[in-house]
TrEMBL record:
Metal-binding as UniProt keyword: no
Membrane-spanning intervals of the chain: 12-34
Upper taxonomic lineage: Bacteria, Pseudomonadati, Pseudomonadota, Gammaproteobacteria, Salinisphaerales
Entry keyword set: Membrane, Transmembrane, Transmembrane helix
Coiled-coil parts of chain: none
Name of the protein in question: PilW family protein
Alphabetized Pfam families for the sequence: N_methyl (PF07963), PilW (PF16074)
InterPro entries documented for this protein: N_methyl_site, Pilin-like, PilW
Organism: Spectribacter acetivorans
Length: 267
C-alpha cells in the first residue's frame, strides 16, 4: 500500500504578507536613496555657491586693485590715460557698476583671464545684466583694449581686437559699491560714498579704496523652508545699512564683502 506525502508550502495569506513586508522594505530603501540624492544635490549647490563667491572675490581683488597702474613711473596719470577715460569710474543704479583702466607691463591679468600685452591699456567694466523672474542676474565684464596712443590693438593676422563681453558669475541678487575718498588730501580715506557722492565732492581722482558688496544666490532651492525677510529677521539682508528686498524662496544666499585698496593711489 502506497502512502501519499502531503506537500507543504505557503498559503495565499502568507504570500500576501510576505509581499507587503517586501514592499515596505523597498519603500524604505528608496526613501533613503532619494534622501541621499537630495542631500548630495544640496551639497553640490552649496559648494558651487561658495566657489562663485571665491571667483567674484578673485576678479574684484585682482582687477580693481590695478586701477591707474602704468609701468613708466616717469609719466603722469593724465598723460598715460589721456585716451578713453579715467583709470576709475563708477555709476549708481539698481546694480552699481565700476570701470577700471590700467596699462600693462606684460605681467598683469584682466577680466579676460589672460595676460595683457606690454604697454596695452585694458579697460574693464563690471556690470550686471537685467534680472530674471527670480530677481537674479549675471555679473559681466566688458573688456576693451587699446594702445597707449589710443590706436586699436591688432592680432597677428592684422585684424582688430574688439570689445569682449564676458559673463563671470550667474545668480547675482545685488551689487553695491562705495568709494573711499580722501577729501582733505592728507593721504588717507576720510569718508565713503556712492558714485554720485564722489562726483559731487571730488570726482574719482581722490578715491583711494573701493568697498564692494555682492549678494549671490544658489542655483536651486536648498533651504528646508522658504525664507521671508518680512516675517523672519534672520533672513534680512542689508547692503551698506540699506535693507535688500529678496524674494521669498528656499534659495541660499551669501554676501561677498570686499574692501580693495587702490595701490596706485596710496601715498
Amino acid at each position: 500500500m502506497t502512502t501519499r506525502r502531503r506537500q507543504s508550502g505557503f498559503t495565499l495569506t502568507e504570500l500576501m504578507i510576505g509581499m507587503v513586508i517586501g514592499l515596505l522594505l523597498l519603500a524604505g530603501i528608496l526613501e533613503i536613496l532619494l534622501g541621499n540624492r537630495e542631500s548630495f544635490q544640496v551639497q553640490q549647490q552649496q559648494a558651487a555657491l561658495q566657489q562663485n563667491a571665491r571667483v567674484v572675490s578673485y576678479f574684484l581683488d585682482t582687477i580693481v586693485a590695478h586701477a591707474g597702474y602704468y609701468p613708466d613711473t616717469f609719466l603722469d596719470t593724465e598723460r598715460v590715460f589721456r585716451n578713453g577715460g579715467d583709470p576709475l569710474r563708477g555709476e549708481d543704479g539698481n546694480f552699481d557698476e565700476v570701470t577700471i583702466r590700467f596699462q600693462s607691463d606684460g605681467a598683469l591679468n584682466d577680466c579676460g583671464g589672460g595676460l595683457v600685452d606690454e604697454d596695452v591699456i585694458s579697460t574693464n567694466r563690471f556690470y550686471v545684466s537685467d534680472t530674471d523672474d527670480d530677481g537674479n542676474a549675471t555679473l559681466l565684464c566688458q573688456r576693451s583694449l587699446q594702445q597707449a596712443d589710443g590706436s586699436a590693438v591688432k592680432r597677428a593676422d592684422g585684424s582688430t581686437v574688439g570689445d569682449s563681453f564676458l559673463p563671470l558669475i550667474e545668480n547675482v541678487s545685488a551689487l553695491s559699491i562705495r568709494y573711499g575718498m580722501d577729501t582733505d588730501e592728507d593721504g588717507s580715506v576720510d569718508r565713503y560714498g556712492d558714485a554720485a557722492s564722489v562726483k559731487a565732492v571730488s570726482d574719482f581722482d581722490r578715491v583711494h579704496s573701493v568697498h564692494i558688496q555682492v549678494v549671490l544666490a544658489s542655483e536651486g532651492e536648498v533651504l528646508t523652508t522658504a525664507r521671508d525677510a518680512n516675517e523672519d529677521p534672520q533672513f534680512k539682508q542689508t547692503l551698506f545699512d540699506d535693507d535688500l528686498e529678496l524674494p521669498s524662496d528656499r534659495r541660499q544666499r551669501v554676501l561677498v564683502d570686499r574692501v580693495i585698496a587702490l595701490k596706485n593711489r596710496l601715498p
